[in-house]
Amino acid sequence: MENSTANPENEPVIENRELNIWEALIPVFALIGMLAFNVFVFGDDALSGSNQFILLLGGGVAAIVGYFNKVKFDFMIDEVAKNIQSTAGAILILLMVGALAGTWLISGIIPTMIYYGLQILNPTIFLAACVIICSVISVATGSSWTTSATVGIALIGIADALGISLGMTAGAILSGAYFGDKMSPLSDTTNLAPAMAGTDLFTHIKYMALTTVPTITITLIAFIIIGLNLDTSGSTDTSAILNSIESSFTITPWLFLVPVVVIFLIVRKTSPLVALLIGTLMGAVAALIVQPNIVLAVSGMDDLNFISGYKGIMNAITVDTAVETDSEALNDLFASSGMAGMLGTIWLIICAMVFGGIMEAIGALARISKALLNMFHTTFGLFASTVFSCLALNVTASDQYLAIVVPGKMFDKAYKDKGLAPENLSRSLEDSGTVTSVLVPWNTCGAYHSGVLGVPVLSYAGYAFFNYLSPFMTLLFAAVGIKIKMLSEK
């Protein structure tokens, strides 16, 4: 995930001794029930707004529980404010991603990626190639978010042109993106997990590789098998699509300089916000130089001059824009909503933070974690309770950071009491907290990637093999007793 403006590792876990486990679970059961009914009624359209209101209703239920347990309303609001403040960086990044997508469309950057990608990536190897490409980019950048917003968007476009399922493609993209999010020393979650557990970064990464490498290997094999059995009708004749792209855009490999510069900046540890802003501005300049006719068309004016150029660029950055071609399939593909297109996702994140903030304020998150801890007494049980706690927090708190911070704080002493080295805890936090966040539609990560890639979470979740196999892998290692490091070994 991207950097946040807050420091979640410094936030205390709020406990409420008057709150029992059943009271803590009331808002959870209420939220799950309401969301299930809402999705049944609205289907994929539930994320258009009704789910957001359901999250607020869930927060209302939590507030009522808090009121009867002597938690002041002002305190709940303060926790909500802290939660929303912690997402400020993510919200700004979302807006900038929308802006970047707009200028990269009218400049021809995304069409150029699709144009060359159609000639290189055939359906048989496409999905496995998505995993590898996104793994390399996310390890280099330390960011699943940036990977999804740059190369991910281009790969979705290529898949659409090849006739490959967008759900499968998004699953492959996110499998690779979260491999890097877990393993890169530049990733904030990869730094946060060992900080919570009390180990160092590179010990954590080395120990995490034991479960991560088998998981990504299984993921690659799965996508290779799927690729071998895909209907390849999408690649039998791409000449018509290629001609349509060429007739609408000026295609030149020089346009690849823009995404290369953005990736280079992030590798050099430039702030993602700064890198995305530079990418947006470079896309705008490229549009004026390479695609002046498209800029003029987007502006809605008759002559290209400073005013029409400015208006065309600003329209691409902020509102809906589309480039028409003689291919109906490409017309849907070559459309962007700019910053305005990200407002629905931002709305979802804010509402999720309201629910998570109130759950934190009334002490429900800490109570649920403690209950999970008390259910298990063996070493495997301790690992299992950590995994389930992380999963539960991704669902209830709707935030990847809280899914690492709260269990990290709650289980730290339990691992030490069992004589387990802290990297066991840090690995469990990443194997379950980091990667499963993208599988929850109302989680900040699920909402972000779904919004950026334009694929509903429920459409890609079944194909994000790496993301849902990771918790099973860490539980398998714990059950069999493979590479479980003890404190005495240190």
UniProtKB/TrEMBL annotation:
Residue spans crossing the bilayer: 20-41, 53-69, 89-118, 125-145, 151-174, 207-228, 248-267, 274-294, 339-359, 371-395, 460-482
Protein name per Swiss-Prot or TrEMBL: Na+/H+ antiporter NhaC
A GO-annotated cellular component: plasma membrane
Family per similarity comment: Belongs to the NhaC Na(+)/H(+) (TC 2.A.35) antiporter family.
UniProt GO molecular function: antiporter activity
Residues of the Na+/H+ antiporter NhaC-like C-terminal domain: 176-482
Keywords from the UniProt entry: Antiport, Cell membrane, Membrane, Transmembrane, Transmembrane helix, Transport
This protein's encoding gene: nhaC
Record localization: Cell membrane
Pfam families linked: Na_H_antiporter
Membrane topology annotation: Multi-pass membrane protein
UniProt source species: Christiangramia sediminis
